Structure formats: C-alpha cells, structure tokens
Please model this.
Amino acid sequence: METKKSTQKAGNDSVLNQVENQTINIGADEKRVREVVSEQMSIVIDQASAVAKQVAQERTDKFMLSLIPTITQVPNYSQAMAEPSVLRQLLKSGEIASLTDREIDYKILSQLVARRIEKNGDINSTTAVSKAIEIVDQISNEGYKFLTIEFVLFNYFPVSFDFYQRLRTYSELFERLSLNADLPNQNTTEWIENLEITNSVRYSSAASYYDFWKILLNFMPAVVLAGIKKENDEYRDAIEKLSSQGMNDSFLVTNPLDTDYVIIPVLRREGIKEIKVGNDARSLFGEQVKVLEEIFDSYSNYKIPEEFIKYEIQNYEGLKDISEWWDTFKNRIGQSVYSLTSVGKVLGYMNARQLDQSLPEIDL
Model:
C-alpha cells in the first residue's frame, strides 16, 4: 500500500522509490516475476504424466501469456512473489490451467491471481478468490455469462439522471461485455445446476427477481416521475421558492421523457443533498435543500407509463435481447432467485474485468 500511495502523490517520488527498491533488492523486478511464474509452471508440468506433459506445457505457456501482463499491473506485485500463500495460489492456478484449453479460463485465472496479489492479507477477499481459482475450469460458458450478467446488473449503475443517457450507458456496457449475445439456453437447467454444484449461486424461494426494466429503474426512481407541469401554478410557486433562496430556474430541467414537465436533475429525493453548485462545487445551504425537497414533493402524481419504458428499452441493441432473456428466465423459475455467492461474485466480476479493463474497480 505504501508504494501505491507514493505513486499517487508524485510521479518523480514514485520513480525514485522504485529505483531505490531495485537497488536494495526489495521484492523482484518483472524479469524475476517471470522466472518465479515459470518455476511454478514447471512444477505443474513435472507433476503431469509422461503422455500429458506436452499438453500441460502448451496450456501453461498460453496461460503465462495472459498471466504475466495481468499481474504486473498490480501495485506491489513483485513483493508478493515472496509470499508463500501467493505462490501456492500461483501453483494452483497453473494446475487448473493445465486442465483446460479454454481461453476464457486462462484470462479469468489471470485476473484471479492478480486479485489474490492485490488483496494479500485480506482473508475475506482472498478466501473467495482461492475457492474461485479451484473451480474456474468447472464453470460452463453459459454459467459465466449468467454470473457476469447478474453481477453487472446489480453492481454497475450509470450516474446520469437522464433516462435516455442511462439506457445508452447500459446498452453500451452490455455490448462491450458481449452480455447481449450467446445468452444461456432457457430450455435446459444444466448450466444453472452447474452453478449450484460449484457453489457459485445460492437458490432461494423466499424472493423473486424483478422484471428487467424494473431493475434498470430501481436505482433511479425519480426518473419515472413526470415532475411539475410547465407554466402552471405549481411551476410558478416553485420558481418563487427558488428565488427566495437565491436560486433560479436552472435547478429545474425539462424532463426528457415528457417535455411538458420539468424536474430536479437527481435520481432520487436523497440526491438533493448531494447537489454541488458554483465553480468551487460547494454544497447547498440547509434552506436551499429544504426548498428543493419541497419542490420534489410537489411533483405531479403522473408517472411515465410502464409500457413506454419497456418500449424504449427495445430500441437499444445492447438491451433488447438481454431484457427478453431475463424476463423469460424470471418467469420460468417463478418465485425464486439464484443469488451470487462470494465465489460467484468474484467470478462474475473477474470475467467482466477481463472483458473490459476500463470498468471501475469494485471492492468485494
């Protein structure tokens, strides 16, 4: 962590610290890391029977091509190579890699080893990672797709209050991760049973899934509220309240879903307290917050129709197929859910990360 902090403070200091570390031989440089990884992979190959050595060699070589560039992106990766528990997981990942010829397994194993290095010392995180490494080759492609879909749906949320912008963001995300293609077969239960056997999901009949459109809106409830109709008494009253606290109509924007109405640009009422103003991004005064909350509470009872929202979702390539698939799956399993376990979460997260490195990091 110390190296990471110094890197964030100043580039020059960071460079000097790295040079100093190399001079006094703290940890190992990338060349040494390659040697350590090669040593562990050699152990894997030596453990293979004579007839399987060539296959093991080919697979571990492919794994290394993915592994080394991935782990060398982790702060303090070189120091971690001296930690016996990390080496044990490195060896285990090599053993699993030798058992599979799927490219996705090599990439997810690489992400898991990097995660193990990053979270070294955090027993809660490393336990889930260790268990995940053991079952990487046992998860079907359909299983990985489900784990990633559920993880992304409930962990990544666009920040824009604009309904259309949020749909575009979701659509682009699902397309980048290819979550809208090759969806799990609805006519078989084998892939979900596979996830249960590997303890990647946990079945419960005490709850049920939301429809896809409700999941998208569950984190932006204010978006479906029409707001205040323009130029009526409520609108004029709102302008007066804003003026009384030194604010103007810039705090009210046209609702993109119904241009006859204006809304406060927040996803939920609680978001009013988080509004920043001015070049110095200062918080609102207490009375200003109170006025905006009163205006929010005066919104019309009219809400954007469900049918309209579902129709709009179908206009986005990244959402159309996955929304249909999700709702079919939800209806097929009825009053039940398959929630991700800690192992399922880390697998879904690592798969998403290997598909798109630009995704914001999540601390599981």
Q: What stands out?
A: Confidence is low (pLDDT under 50) at residues 1-28. Residues 53-71 form the longest helix (19 residues). The first strand starts at residue 201 and ends at 204. Strands lie at 201-204, 228-229, 253-254, 261-263, 276-277, 282-283, 337-340.
